Protein backbone atom coordinates (compact mmCIF):
# COMPACT_ATOMS: atom_id res chain seq x y z
CA UNK A 1 0.00 0.00 0.00
CA UNK A 2 1.28 3.48 -0.77
CA UNK A 3 0.28 6.91 0.50
CA UNK A 4 1.10 10.44 -0.56
CA UNK A 5 3.55 12.02 1.87
CA UNK A 6 4.96 15.49 1.13
CA UNK A 7 4.08 14.90 -2.53
CA UNK A 8 6.06 11.62 -2.55
CA UNK A 9 4.50 8.19 -2.98
CA UNK A 10 5.79 6.03 -0.09
CA UNK A 11 5.32 2.35 0.68
CA UNK A 12 3.71 1.69 4.09
CA UNK A 13 3.69 -2.10 4.16
CA UNK A 14 6.15 -2.27 7.12
CA UNK A 15 4.10 0.09 9.28
CA UNK A 16 2.01 -1.70 11.89
CA UNK A 17 4.04 -4.94 11.81
CA UNK A 18 5.30 -5.00 15.38
CA UNK A 19 7.13 -8.33 15.54
CA UNK A 20 10.81 -7.76 15.00
CA UNK A 21 13.02 -10.79 15.54
CA UNK A 22 16.52 -10.24 16.92
CA UNK A 23 18.62 -13.16 15.61
CA UNK A 24 20.95 -14.70 18.20
CA UNK A 25 24.60 -15.23 17.44
CA UNK A 26 25.70 -18.87 17.31
CA UNK A 27 28.18 -18.05 20.10
CA UNK A 28 25.24 -17.32 22.35
CA UNK A 29 24.10 -20.93 21.85
CA UNK A 30 27.59 -22.21 22.64
CA UNK A 31 27.73 -20.07 25.78
CA UNK A 32 24.31 -21.21 26.96
CA UNK A 33 25.30 -24.84 26.42
CA UNK A 34 28.50 -24.40 28.48
CA UNK A 35 26.68 -22.68 31.32
CA UNK A 36 23.99 -25.34 31.33
CA UNK A 37 26.63 -28.07 31.43
CA UNK A 38 28.44 -26.41 34.35
CA UNK A 39 25.19 -25.90 36.24
CA UNK A 40 24.12 -29.51 35.80
CA UNK A 41 27.54 -30.78 36.90
CA UNK A 42 27.40 -28.59 40.00
CA UNK A 43 23.91 -29.72 40.95
CA UNK A 44 24.92 -33.31 40.30
CA UNK A 45 27.98 -33.20 42.55
CA UNK A 46 26.33 -31.08 45.26
CA UNK A 47 23.48 -33.58 45.56
CA UNK A 48 25.33 -36.84 45.11
CA UNK A 49 28.74 -36.23 46.75
CA UNK A 50 28.29 -37.14 50.44
CA UNK A 51 31.40 -35.12 51.44
CA UNK A 52 29.32 -31.91 51.19
CA UNK A 53 27.63 -33.18 54.30
CA UNK A 54 24.37 -31.31 53.89
CA UNK A 55 22.80 -33.02 56.91
CA UNK A 56 25.71 -31.74 59.02
CA UNK A 57 25.21 -28.27 57.54
CA UNK A 58 21.57 -28.48 58.60
CA UNK A 59 22.52 -29.50 62.14
CA UNK A 60 24.99 -26.68 62.68
CA UNK A 61 23.33 -23.86 60.74
CA UNK A 62 21.49 -22.67 63.84
CA UNK A 63 23.99 -24.00 66.41
CA UNK A 64 24.28 -21.59 69.37
CA UNK A 65 28.00 -21.03 69.00
CA UNK A 66 27.60 -20.35 65.26
CA UNK A 67 24.84 -17.86 66.01
CA UNK A 68 26.84 -16.17 68.75
CA UNK A 69 29.80 -15.96 66.33
CA UNK A 70 27.48 -14.39 63.76
CA UNK A 71 26.14 -11.91 66.30
CA UNK A 72 29.66 -11.04 67.35
CA UNK A 73 30.73 -10.48 63.72
CA UNK A 74 27.74 -8.20 63.16
CA UNK A 75 28.55 -6.17 66.28
CA UNK A 76 32.16 -5.90 65.19
CA UNK A 77 31.06 -4.70 61.74
CA UNK A 78 28.97 -1.93 63.31
CA UNK A 79 31.76 -0.79 65.64
CA UNK A 80 34.34 -0.89 62.84
CA UNK A 81 32.10 1.06 60.44
CA UNK A 82 31.34 3.75 63.04
CA UNK A 83 34.97 4.19 64.09
CA UNK A 84 36.29 3.80 60.54
CA UNK A 85 33.85 6.34 59.09
CA UNK A 86 34.50 8.90 61.82
CA UNK A 87 38.26 8.61 61.42
CA UNK A 88 37.83 8.44 57.63
CA UNK A 89 36.02 11.79 57.56
CA UNK A 90 38.86 13.35 59.56
CA UNK A 91 41.51 11.88 57.25
CA UNK A 92 39.50 13.01 54.19
CA UNK A 93 39.33 16.57 55.53
CA UNK A 94 43.06 16.49 56.29
CA UNK A 95 43.69 15.22 52.76
CA UNK A 96 41.92 18.29 51.30
CA UNK A 97 43.83 20.69 53.58
CA UNK A 98 45.82 23.45 51.90
CA UNK A 99 48.69 22.72 54.30
CA UNK A 100 51.09 20.26 52.61
CA UNK A 101 52.19 18.76 55.92
CA UNK A 102 48.62 17.91 56.93
CA UNK A 103 47.49 16.63 53.54
CA UNK A 104 50.78 14.73 53.24
CA UNK A 105 50.16 13.00 56.57
CA UNK A 106 46.70 11.95 55.39
CA UNK A 107 48.14 10.70 52.10
CA UNK A 108 50.76 8.68 53.98
CA UNK A 109 48.10 7.16 56.22
CA UNK A 110 45.96 6.08 53.27
CA UNK A 111 49.00 4.84 51.37
CA UNK A 112 50.16 2.67 54.24
CA UNK A 113 46.85 1.18 55.38
CA UNK A 114 45.58 0.46 51.88
CA UNK A 115 48.93 -0.74 50.63
CA UNK A 116 49.52 -3.49 53.19
CA UNK A 117 47.39 -6.64 53.55
CA UNK A 118 44.71 -6.41 56.22
CA UNK A 119 45.76 -9.82 57.55
CA UNK A 120 49.26 -8.50 58.26
CA UNK A 121 47.79 -5.45 60.00
CA UNK A 122 45.63 -7.67 62.23
CA UNK A 123 48.55 -9.89 63.22
CA UNK A 124 50.75 -6.82 63.68
CA UNK A 125 48.39 -5.11 66.14
CA UNK A 126 47.93 -8.39 67.98
CA UNK A 127 51.69 -8.63 68.46
CA UNK A 128 52.28 -4.96 69.14
CA UNK A 129 53.67 -5.86 72.59
CA UNK A 130 56.69 -7.41 70.90
CA UNK A 131 57.48 -3.99 69.41
CA UNK A 132 56.35 -1.77 72.28
CA UNK A 133 56.16 -3.64 75.60
CA UNK A 134 54.82 -0.42 77.13
CA UNK A 135 52.36 1.88 75.35
CA UNK A 136 52.88 5.36 76.64
CA UNK A 137 51.87 8.91 75.96
CA UNK A 138 55.02 10.97 76.16
CA UNK A 139 56.45 14.27 74.99
CA UNK A 140 58.87 13.41 72.14
CA UNK A 141 62.36 13.23 73.70
CA UNK A 142 60.69 14.31 76.95
CA UNK A 143 58.91 12.90 79.98
CA UNK A 144 56.31 10.12 79.90
CA UNK A 145 52.79 11.27 80.78
CA UNK A 146 50.94 7.98 80.74
CA UNK A 147 52.08 4.40 80.41
CA UNK A 148 50.19 1.10 80.06
CA UNK A 149 51.47 -2.42 79.65
CA UNK A 150 50.79 -3.47 76.05
CA UNK A 151 49.66 -6.96 76.92
CA UNK A 152 46.90 -5.64 79.18
CA UNK A 153 45.76 -3.02 76.68
CA UNK A 154 45.89 -5.12 73.52
CA UNK A 155 43.57 -8.07 73.92
CA UNK A 156 42.64 -10.07 70.80
CA UNK A 157 39.41 -8.05 70.65
CA UNK A 158 41.05 -4.60 70.86
CA UNK A 159 43.68 -5.70 68.33
CA UNK A 160 40.92 -6.86 65.98
CA UNK A 161 38.86 -3.67 66.30
CA UNK A 162 41.95 -1.47 66.07
CA UNK A 163 43.21 -3.22 62.92
CA UNK A 164 39.84 -3.34 61.15
CA UNK A 165 38.92 0.25 62.07
CA UNK A 166 42.25 1.79 61.07
CA UNK A 167 42.11 -0.11 57.78
CA UNK A 168 38.48 0.82 57.19
CA UNK A 169 39.29 4.49 57.87
CA UNK A 170 41.82 4.53 55.04
CA UNK A 171 39.22 3.27 52.56
CA UNK A 172 36.44 5.47 53.94
CA UNK A 173 38.74 8.50 53.74
CA UNK A 174 38.99 8.02 49.97
CA UNK A 175 35.24 7.40 49.70
CA UNK A 176 34.44 10.57 51.65
CA UNK A 177 37.01 12.61 49.76
CA UNK A 178 35.47 11.44 46.48
CA UNK A 179 32.06 12.53 47.76
CA UNK A 180 33.29 15.96 48.84
CA UNK A 181 34.99 16.48 45.46
CA UNK A 182 31.80 15.32 43.74
CA UNK A 183 29.77 18.19 45.18
CA UNK A 184 29.65 21.15 42.82
CA UNK A 185 32.24 23.78 43.79
CA UNK A 186 29.53 26.42 43.54
CA UNK A 187 27.83 24.99 46.63
CA UNK A 188 30.74 25.82 48.91
CA UNK A 189 31.12 29.21 47.25
CA UNK A 190 27.44 30.04 47.66
CA UNK A 191 27.66 29.12 51.34
CA UNK A 192 30.80 31.24 51.76
CA UNK A 193 29.19 34.15 49.93
CA UNK A 194 26.39 34.13 52.52
CA UNK A 195 29.04 34.65 55.19
CA UNK A 196 29.22 31.08 56.47
CA UNK A 197 32.40 30.04 58.26
CA UNK A 198 34.26 26.77 57.52
CA UNK A 199 32.06 24.64 59.79
CA UNK A 200 28.81 25.97 58.33
CA UNK A 201 30.13 25.49 54.79
CA UNK A 202 30.94 21.88 55.72
CA UNK A 203 27.39 21.45 56.99
CA UNK A 204 26.06 22.56 53.60
CA UNK A 205 28.42 20.43 51.53
CA UNK A 206 28.51 17.21 53.61
CA UNK A 207 24.82 16.23 53.24
CA UNK A 208 25.25 16.50 49.49
CA UNK A 209 28.43 14.43 49.64
CA UNK A 210 26.60 11.74 51.64
CA UNK A 211 24.14 11.26 48.79
CA UNK A 212 27.08 10.61 46.47
CA UNK A 213 28.96 8.26 48.78
CA UNK A 214 26.09 5.97 49.79
CA UNK A 215 26.78 3.29 47.15
CA UNK A 216 30.50 3.15 47.91
CA UNK A 217 29.88 3.17 51.66
CA UNK A 218 27.41 0.31 51.37
CA UNK A 219 30.12 -1.60 49.52
CA UNK A 220 32.47 -0.88 52.39
CA UNK A 221 29.92 -2.23 54.88
CA UNK A 222 29.73 -5.50 52.95
CA UNK A 223 33.53 -5.70 52.89
CA UNK A 224 33.80 -4.79 56.56
CA UNK A 225 31.46 -7.64 57.41
CA UNK A 226 33.39 -10.18 55.34
CA UNK A 227 36.69 -8.89 56.70
CA UNK A 228 35.63 -9.73 60.26
CA UNK A 229 36.37 -13.36 59.28
CA UNK A 230 40.08 -12.46 59.16
CA UNK A 231 40.26 -11.87 62.90
CA UNK A 232 39.78 -15.61 63.43
CA UNK A 233 43.57 -15.84 63.03
CA UNK A 234 44.10 -14.10 66.37
CA UNK A 235 41.46 -16.18 68.10
CA UNK A 236 38.58 -13.75 68.26
CA UNK A 237 35.32 -15.70 68.43
CA UNK A 238 33.83 -14.44 65.18
CA UNK A 239 31.66 -16.51 62.84
CA UNK A 240 34.52 -18.25 61.03
CA UNK A 241 36.40 -18.95 64.24
CA UNK A 242 33.27 -20.51 65.78
CA UNK A 243 33.01 -22.80 62.76
CA UNK A 244 36.71 -23.65 63.02
CA UNK A 245 36.39 -24.62 66.69
CA UNK A 246 33.57 -27.00 65.83
CA UNK A 247 35.33 -28.67 62.90
CA UNK A 248 38.53 -29.01 64.90
CA UNK A 249 36.50 -31.26 67.19
CA UNK A 250 34.30 -33.18 64.73
CA UNK A 251 36.51 -32.96 61.60
CA UNK A 252 33.50 -31.90 59.46
CA UNK A 253 35.56 -29.15 57.83
CA UNK A 254 33.67 -28.66 54.57
CA UNK A 255 30.14 -28.70 56.04
CA UNK A 256 31.10 -26.13 58.70
CA UNK A 257 32.82 -23.89 56.17
CA UNK A 258 29.60 -24.14 54.18
CA UNK A 259 27.63 -23.09 57.28
CA UNK A 260 29.84 -20.02 57.69
CA UNK A 261 29.76 -19.21 53.95
CA UNK A 262 25.96 -19.48 53.86
CA UNK A 263 25.66 -17.01 56.73
CA UNK A 264 28.11 -14.59 55.11
CA UNK A 265 26.15 -14.86 51.85
CA UNK A 266 22.85 -14.30 53.62
CA UNK A 267 24.03 -11.20 55.49
CA UNK A 268 25.82 -9.66 52.49
CA UNK A 269 22.68 -10.26 50.40
CA UNK A 270 20.61 -8.47 53.04
CA UNK A 271 23.11 -5.61 53.05
CA UNK A 272 23.06 -5.48 49.26
CA UNK A 273 19.28 -5.32 49.31
CA UNK A 274 19.42 -2.47 51.83
CA UNK A 275 21.93 -0.66 49.63
CA UNK A 276 19.57 -0.92 46.66
CA UNK A 277 16.73 0.57 48.69
CA UNK A 278 18.91 3.44 49.95
CA UNK A 279 20.19 4.29 46.48
CA UNK A 280 16.70 4.25 45.02
CA UNK A 281 15.58 6.45 47.86
CA UNK A 282 18.28 9.07 47.34
CA UNK A 283 18.30 9.14 43.55
CA UNK A 284 14.59 9.82 43.64
CA UNK A 285 15.08 12.73 45.98
CA UNK A 286 16.87 14.59 43.23
CA UNK A 287 14.49 14.01 40.36
CA UNK A 288 11.86 16.70 39.94
CA UNK A 289 9.07 14.17 39.41
CA UNK A 290 9.27 12.33 42.70
CA UNK A 291 7.89 14.26 45.61
CA UNK A 292 8.29 11.70 48.36
CA UNK A 293 11.07 13.73 49.88
CA UNK A 294 9.04 16.89 49.90
CA UNK A 295 8.38 17.99 53.43
CA UNK A 296 4.76 17.39 54.17
CA UNK A 297 2.69 20.34 53.06
CA UNK A 298 0.17 21.54 55.53
CA UNK A 299 -3.03 20.80 53.63
CA UNK A 300 -5.30 23.75 54.11
CA UNK A 301 -8.46 21.68 54.45
CA UNK A 302 -11.07 22.85 56.88
CA UNK A 303 -11.86 19.96 59.18
CA UNK A 304 -15.59 19.74 59.32
CA UNK A 305 -16.90 18.50 62.62
CA UNK A 306 -19.32 15.73 61.78
CA UNK A 307 -20.93 14.95 65.07
CA UNK A 308 -24.20 13.99 63.50
CA UNK A 309 -26.12 17.15 64.27
CA UNK B 1 30.42 61.13 49.37
CA UNK B 2 32.53 58.15 50.41
CA UNK B 3 32.34 55.38 47.82
CA UNK B 4 30.58 52.12 48.67
CA UNK B 5 33.27 50.15 46.92
CA UNK B 6 36.76 51.26 46.07
CA UNK B 7 39.40 49.16 44.39
CA UNK B 8 42.97 50.35 43.98
CA UNK B 9 45.73 48.74 41.95
CA UNK B 10 44.12 45.30 42.13
CA UNK B 11 46.34 42.49 40.87
CA UNK B 12 45.53 38.79 40.88
CA UNK B 13 47.26 35.81 39.29
CA UNK B 14 46.26 32.17 39.04
CA UNK B 15 49.54 30.34 38.66
CA UNK B 16 51.43 32.07 35.89
CA UNK B 17 48.28 33.66 34.43
CA UNK B 18 47.77 37.25 35.53
CA UNK B 19 44.01 37.87 35.46
CA UNK B 20 43.86 41.33 37.03
CA UNK B 21 46.65 43.68 36.01
CA UNK B 22 46.14 46.71 38.21
CA UNK B 23 42.44 47.62 38.34
CA UNK B 24 41.15 50.86 39.86
CA UNK B 25 37.40 51.00 40.33
CA UNK B 26 34.92 53.00 42.40
CA UNK B 27 31.20 52.48 43.00
CA UNK B 28 29.06 55.16 44.63
CA UNK B 29 26.36 54.12 47.10
CA UNK B 30 22.93 53.50 45.60
CA UNK B 31 24.18 53.18 42.04
CA UNK B 32 24.16 50.35 39.53
CA UNK B 33 27.44 49.56 37.78
CA UNK B 34 27.75 47.14 34.90
CA UNK B 35 30.99 45.34 34.07
CA UNK B 36 31.17 44.27 30.46
CA UNK B 37 33.88 42.75 28.31
CA UNK B 38 34.94 39.55 26.55
CA UNK B 39 35.20 36.30 28.53
CA UNK B 40 38.53 35.90 30.24
CA UNK B 41 38.90 39.66 30.68
CA UNK B 42 38.83 39.40 34.49
CA UNK B 43 35.29 40.66 35.20
CA UNK B 44 34.23 37.69 37.31
CA UNK B 45 37.54 37.60 39.15
CA UNK B 46 37.20 41.29 40.00
CA UNK B 47 33.71 40.61 41.36
CA UNK B 48 34.93 37.65 43.40
CA UNK B 49 37.69 39.78 44.90
CA UNK B 50 35.11 42.26 46.19
CA UNK B 51 33.56 39.73 48.59
CA UNK B 52 36.81 37.94 49.36
CA UNK B 53 36.02 34.71 47.51
CA UNK B 54 39.39 35.41 45.92
CA UNK B 55 42.04 37.47 47.68
CA UNK B 56 44.21 39.98 45.83
CA UNK B 57 47.94 39.53 45.36
CA UNK B 58 48.47 43.29 45.33
CA UNK B 59 46.32 46.38 45.81
CA UNK B 60 43.23 46.74 47.96
CA UNK B 61 39.48 46.38 48.00
CA UNK B 62 37.33 48.36 50.40
CA UNK B 63 33.62 47.90 50.92
CA UNK B 64 31.97 50.70 52.87
CA UNK B 65 35.43 51.75 53.97
CA UNK B 66 36.37 48.31 55.35
CA UNK B 67 39.47 46.64 53.94
CA UNK B 68 38.51 43.19 52.60
CA UNK B 69 40.53 40.14 53.64
CA UNK B 70 43.40 42.09 55.19
CA UNK B 71 44.42 44.03 58.25
CA UNK B 72 47.21 46.52 58.47
CA UNK B 73 49.75 46.02 61.24
CA UNK B 74 52.33 48.78 60.91
CA UNK B 75 54.33 47.97 57.80
CA UNK B 76 52.79 44.53 57.44
CA UNK B 77 49.61 43.43 55.69
CA UNK B 78 48.17 40.36 57.38
CA UNK B 79 45.50 38.15 55.83
CA UNK B 80 42.41 37.87 58.02
CA UNK B 81 41.41 34.45 59.36
CA UNK B 82 38.64 32.72 57.42
CA UNK B 83 35.90 33.44 59.98
CA UNK B 84 36.68 37.18 59.82
CA UNK B 85 36.48 37.16 56.02
CA UNK B 86 33.22 35.21 56.35
CA UNK B 87 31.91 38.02 58.53
CA UNK B 88 32.81 40.56 55.85
CA UNK B 89 31.11 38.47 53.17
CA UNK B 90 27.90 38.32 55.17
CA UNK B 91 27.27 41.99 54.34
CA UNK B 92 27.89 41.52 50.61
CA UNK B 93 25.29 39.65 48.56
CA UNK B 94 26.35 37.58 45.60
CA UNK B 95 24.35 35.97 42.80
CA UNK B 96 26.05 33.34 40.63
CA UNK B 97 25.71 32.44 36.98
CA UNK B 98 24.80 28.84 37.92
CA UNK B 99 22.42 29.95 40.76
CA UNK B 100 24.12 27.52 43.19
CA UNK B 101 20.99 26.97 45.22
CA UNK B 102 21.33 24.27 47.86
CA UNK B 103 19.58 21.33 46.15
CA UNK B 104 18.60 19.54 49.35
CA UNK B 105 16.71 22.54 50.72
CA UNK B 106 13.39 24.07 49.72
CA UNK B 107 13.26 27.60 48.31
CA UNK B 108 12.35 28.99 51.72
CA UNK B 109 15.09 26.98 53.46
CA UNK B 110 17.59 28.32 50.94
CA UNK B 111 16.54 31.87 51.73
CA UNK B 112 16.54 31.39 55.50
CA UNK B 113 19.82 29.43 55.66
CA UNK B 114 21.91 32.62 55.87
CA UNK B 115 19.93 34.45 58.55
CA UNK B 116 19.58 31.31 60.72
CA UNK B 117 23.09 29.89 60.36
CA UNK B 118 25.11 33.10 60.12
CA UNK B 119 23.13 35.71 62.01
CA UNK B 120 21.57 33.31 64.50
CA UNK B 121 18.07 34.51 63.66
CA UNK B 122 15.14 32.57 65.08
CA UNK B 123 13.41 30.25 62.64
CA UNK B 124 10.15 32.19 62.95
CA UNK B 125 11.81 35.52 62.17
CA UNK B 126 13.80 34.04 59.31
CA UNK B 127 10.70 32.43 57.82
CA UNK B 128 8.79 35.70 58.03
CA UNK B 129 11.58 37.64 56.29
CA UNK B 130 12.19 34.78 53.83
CA UNK B 131 8.53 34.55 52.81
CA UNK B 132 8.46 38.29 52.32
CA UNK B 133 11.53 38.19 50.08
CA UNK B 134 10.18 35.26 48.04
CA UNK B 135 6.98 37.26 47.48
CA UNK B 136 9.09 40.24 46.50
CA UNK B 137 10.74 38.20 43.73
CA UNK B 138 7.34 36.84 42.71
CA UNK B 139 7.73 33.35 44.18
CA UNK B 140 5.56 33.54 47.27
CA UNK B 141 3.74 30.39 46.18
CA UNK B 142 6.92 28.38 45.56
CA UNK B 143 8.46 28.52 49.02
CA UNK B 144 8.32 24.78 49.67
CA UNK B 145 9.52 23.71 46.24
CA UNK B 146 12.95 22.20 45.85
CA UNK B 147 15.32 23.85 43.33
CA UNK B 148 14.97 20.87 40.96
CA UNK B 149 11.26 21.66 40.77
CA UNK B 150 11.83 25.26 39.67
CA UNK B 151 12.72 26.72 36.29
CA UNK B 152 16.09 28.40 35.83
CA UNK B 153 14.54 31.83 36.06
CA UNK B 154 12.74 30.91 39.26
CA UNK B 155 15.92 29.42 40.74
CA UNK B 156 17.83 32.60 40.01
CA UNK B 157 15.12 34.69 41.64
CA UNK B 158 15.31 32.46 44.74
CA UNK B 159 19.09 32.99 44.68
CA UNK B 160 18.55 36.75 44.64
CA UNK B 161 16.12 36.46 47.57
CA UNK B 162 18.67 34.30 49.40
CA UNK B 163 21.34 36.97 49.02
CA UNK B 164 18.92 39.74 50.04
CA UNK B 165 17.99 37.82 53.20
CA UNK B 166 21.35 38.80 54.69
CA UNK B 167 20.38 42.46 54.31
CA UNK B 168 23.51 43.27 52.29
CA UNK B 169 25.02 46.70 51.69
CA UNK B 170 25.97 45.69 48.16
CA UNK B 171 24.74 43.11 45.65
CA UNK B 172 27.16 41.48 43.23
CA UNK B 173 25.75 39.71 40.17
CA UNK B 174 28.06 37.38 38.23
CA UNK B 175 26.44 36.96 34.80
CA UNK B 176 23.05 36.26 36.40
CA UNK B 177 21.23 35.55 33.15
CA UNK B 178 23.93 33.78 31.12
CA UNK B 179 22.75 30.27 32.06
CA UNK B 180 19.08 30.99 31.34
CA UNK B 181 16.92 30.15 28.36
CA UNK B 182 16.09 33.36 26.47
CA UNK B 183 12.45 33.42 27.53
CA UNK B 184 13.42 33.32 31.24
CA UNK B 185 15.90 36.21 31.19
CA UNK B 186 13.24 38.90 31.43
CA UNK B 187 11.84 37.82 34.80
CA UNK B 188 15.29 37.91 36.43
CA UNK B 189 16.20 41.28 34.92
CA UNK B 190 12.91 42.73 36.08
CA UNK B 191 13.63 41.66 39.68
CA UNK B 192 17.06 43.28 39.38
CA UNK B 193 15.51 46.44 37.97
CA UNK B 194 13.15 46.64 40.98
CA UNK B 195 16.12 46.22 43.27
CA UNK B 196 17.94 49.07 41.52
CA UNK B 197 14.86 51.27 41.87
CA UNK B 198 14.89 50.64 45.62
CA UNK B 199 18.38 52.15 45.74
CA UNK B 200 20.47 48.99 46.19
CA UNK B 201 24.13 49.37 45.32
CA UNK B 202 24.74 46.83 42.59
CA UNK B 203 27.62 45.60 40.44
CA UNK B 204 26.48 43.47 37.54
CA UNK B 205 28.78 41.48 35.29
CA UNK B 206 26.63 41.01 32.23
CA UNK B 207 26.30 40.53 28.52
CA UNK B 208 22.83 42.12 28.54
CA UNK B 209 23.64 45.42 26.86
CA UNK B 210 20.01 46.55 26.90
CA UNK B 211 19.94 46.13 30.69
CA UNK B 212 23.21 48.04 31.03
CA UNK B 213 21.91 50.84 28.86
CA UNK B 214 18.59 51.19 30.68
CA UNK B 215 19.45 50.49 34.32
CA UNK B 216 23.14 51.17 34.89
CA UNK B 217 24.44 54.47 36.19
CA UNK B 218 27.95 53.50 35.20
CA UNK B 219 29.49 51.03 32.78
CA UNK B 220 33.05 49.76 32.78
CA UNK B 221 34.53 47.83 29.87
CA UNK B 222 37.24 45.35 30.84
CA UNK B 223 39.70 43.62 28.56
CA UNK B 224 42.93 41.77 29.31
CA UNK B 225 42.78 42.34 33.06
CA UNK B 226 42.34 46.10 33.02
CA UNK B 227 39.46 48.53 32.75
CA UNK B 228 39.85 49.94 29.27
CA UNK B 229 37.01 52.39 29.27
CA UNK B 230 34.34 53.49 31.72
CA UNK B 231 31.70 56.12 32.30
CA UNK B 232 28.11 56.94 31.43
CA UNK B 233 26.37 53.93 29.78
CA UNK B 234 25.20 55.97 26.79
CA UNK B 235 28.76 57.16 26.21
CA UNK B 236 30.53 53.81 26.67
CA UNK B 237 27.93 51.71 24.89
CA UNK B 238 26.79 54.24 22.28
CA UNK B 239 29.99 55.94 21.44
CA UNK B 240 33.03 53.94 22.64
CA UNK B 241 36.32 55.80 22.38
CA UNK B 242 38.70 52.86 22.30
CA UNK B 243 39.13 50.48 19.42
CA UNK B 244 38.89 47.42 21.71
CA UNK B 245 35.51 48.52 23.13
CA UNK B 246 34.23 49.38 19.64
CA UNK B 247 35.30 45.98 18.39
CA UNK B 248 33.68 44.14 21.34
CA UNK B 249 30.41 46.06 21.14
CA UNK B 250 30.11 45.50 17.42
CA UNK B 251 30.22 41.75 18.05
CA UNK B 252 27.62 41.43 20.85
Q: Any overview of this molecule?
A:
The complex is a heterodimer of chains A (309) and B (252). Chain A is mainly α and 309 residues long. Chain A is built from 12 helices and 4 strands. In chain A, strand 1 and strand 2 form a beta hairpin. The longest helix of chain A is centred in the C-terminal third of the chain and has 34 residues. In chain A, 26% of the residues are buried. In chain A, the strands form 2 sheets. A two-stranded antiparallel ribbon of chain A has the order 1-2. Chain B is of the alpha/beta class and 252 residues long. The longest helix of chain B has 16 residues. The radius of gyration of chain B is 18 Å and the shape is globular. The interface between A and B is medium-sized, with 27 and 33 residues.
Task: Offer a few descriptive terms.
heterodimer; A: 309 residues; mainly alpha; two-stranded antiparallel ribbon; 12 helices; 67% helix; 6% strand; B: 252 residues; alpha/beta; 6-stranded mixed beta sheet; 9 helices; 12 strands; 27% strand
Secondary-structure element order of chain A, N to C: EEHHHHHHEEHHHHHH
Please give the radius of gyration of chain B in angstroms. Answer: 18 Å
Note the quaternary state here: heterodimer
Radius of gyration of chain A: 29 Å
Write the layout of secondary structure elements.
The complex is a heterodimer of chains A (309) and B (252).
Chain A: E1 2-5, E2 8-11, H1 26-48, H2 54-61, H3 64-95, H4 100-115, H5 118-126, H6 128-131, E3 134-138, E4 144-149, H7 150-153, H8 156-182, H9 185-193, H10 198-227, H11 239-250, H12 253-286
Antiparallel strand pairs in A: 1-2, 3-4
Chain B: E1 5-14, E2 17-27, E3 32-36, H1 43-50, E4 58-63, E5 66-67, E6 70-73, E7 76-79, H2 82-89, E8 92-95, H3 107-117, H4 123-136, H5 152-164, E9 170-174, H6 182-197, E10 201-205, H7 209-215, E11 218-223, E12 226-231, H8 233-238, H9 243-251
Parallel strand pairs in B: 3-10, 3-11, 8-9, 9-10
Antiparallel strand pairs in B: 1-2, 1-4, 4-5, 6-7, 11-12
Amino acid sequence: MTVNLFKQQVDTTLVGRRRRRVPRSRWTYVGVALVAFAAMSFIDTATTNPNFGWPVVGTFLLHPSILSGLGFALQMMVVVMVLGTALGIIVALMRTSANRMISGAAWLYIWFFRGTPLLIQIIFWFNIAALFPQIELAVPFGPTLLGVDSNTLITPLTAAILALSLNEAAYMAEVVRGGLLGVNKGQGEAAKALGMGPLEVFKIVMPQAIRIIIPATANQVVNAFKNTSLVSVIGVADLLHSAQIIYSINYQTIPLLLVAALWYLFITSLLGYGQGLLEQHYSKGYSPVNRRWRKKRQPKVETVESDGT
Amino acid sequence: MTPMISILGARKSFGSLEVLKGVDYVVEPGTVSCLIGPSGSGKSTLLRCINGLELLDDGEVRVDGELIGLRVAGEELIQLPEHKIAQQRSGIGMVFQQFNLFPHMTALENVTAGPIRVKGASKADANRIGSGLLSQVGLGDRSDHYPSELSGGQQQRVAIARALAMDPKVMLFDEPTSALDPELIGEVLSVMRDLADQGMTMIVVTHEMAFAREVADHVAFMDGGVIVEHGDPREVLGNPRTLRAKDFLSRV
